Amino acid sequence: MKAAVLHALDGLPAYEDFADPTPPPDGELATLVAAGIHPFVRSVASGRHYGSTGHYPLIPGADAVVRTADGTLAYTGGLPPPYGTLAERIAVPAMLRVALPAGADPVAIAGAMNPGLASWMPLLARSAEVDALGTVLVLGVTGMAGLLAVENAFVLGATRVVGAGRDPDGLARAAKAGAVTVPLTGDRTADAAALVAALAGTSPSIVVDFVWGAPAETAFAALGRRGLDEDRADIAYVQIGSMAGADAAVPSTLLRSRRIRISGSGAGSASIAAIIAQLPRYMQLIVDGRITVPTRVFTLAQIADAWTTAAQSGRRVVVVP
């Protein structure tokens, strides 16, 4: 079969022949309809993600819409290395083969599911813990995952979403989706003050952090408080990505003076069963237009250009046969 084949760290995938995958027990061999090139896909393929095997050659790709032998359109993913979803044929595991709802656009599903579920799961869990989400803070709102976090928060009942990031175009997209946006300048004192002003005297019920590093430290400064009275807030801080740095210093005073829990959400810590259970609901939100993501389509034969374009901010790149 033809596939996007990556031969080395930080290389460009090439459109080449690769051995067909063998379907797992109770699985089946399906054909590609649409697959997204997400930051997660690029990070794993390049060896920067903790889930990378470091073995090459490999086919990148985390999830896809496929057509099964009986003609059904289905969403799938979770393939064992060296196989990914950027290939003509995909061995679909039985546990992850969810039929698309009626009227679904395969390109929209492929473009939105991975970045959307990244925040959907922690936001959904938090919404079940509190009476109302109230204010939600999104760090890294300028990426597609950040934009979808804004949409997800409002779908789940948030009354206010504050989004912080650097890219002006991304901030404009987040503002159009309803977020109060904060441009980050790199001046921690000024940026923390801007976050405090945007929060307008409220404490977020949850912080969704796609970037970590210095922006996280800015958020910690903005969330700090002084005084010995009991903190009335209850903040869940969920670390999802590390685009701005792998490490961030957490002030001890923040942990002692506030009711705040810092945790992570990602492959390994998130419940696969819980994610699979949410797939039909999230796909239906995309069909209904409540979750939207701009996309740009390339063919599999254009994989080198698609891969390079996916590194840029803007529309999510989706590959079709």
Query: What structural class is derived from the secondary structure elements?
Result: alpha/beta
Uncertain parts: none
Strand runs, count: 15
Helices and strands, in N-to-C order? Answer: EEEHEEEEHEHEHEHEHEHEHEHE
CATH architecture of the largest domain: 3-Layer(aba) Sandwich
How does this model look, in words?
The mean pLDDT is 94. By secondary structure, this protein is of the alpha/beta class. It has helices spanning 39-45, 106-129, 144-155, 168-176, 188-199, 213-223, 252-257, 272-287, 303-310; strands at residues 2-5, 14-17, 28-37, 63-67, 73-77, 89-92, 97-99, 135-139, 160-165, 180-183, 206-209, 235-239, 260-264, 295-299, 316-320. The longest helix is centred in the middle third of the chain and has 24 residues, at 106-129. Helices cover 33% and strands 23% of the residues. Helix 2 (106-129) crosses helix 3 (144-155). It folds into 2 domains: 2-99 and 293-320, Medium-chain alcohol dehydrogenases, catalytic domain (Quinone Oxidoreductase, Chain A, domain 1, Alpha-Beta Complex), CATH 3.90.180.10; 115-264, NAD(P)-binding Rossmann-like Domain (Rossmann fold, 3-Layer(aba) Sandwich), CATH 3.40.50. The relative contact order is 0.16. The protein has 9 helices and 15 strands. It is globular, with a radius of gyration of 20 Å.
Short descriptors:
single chain, 321 residues, alpha/beta, Rossmann fold, six-stranded parallel β-sheet, 9 helices, 33% helix
Short summary:
The chain has 321 residues and is an alpha/beta fold.
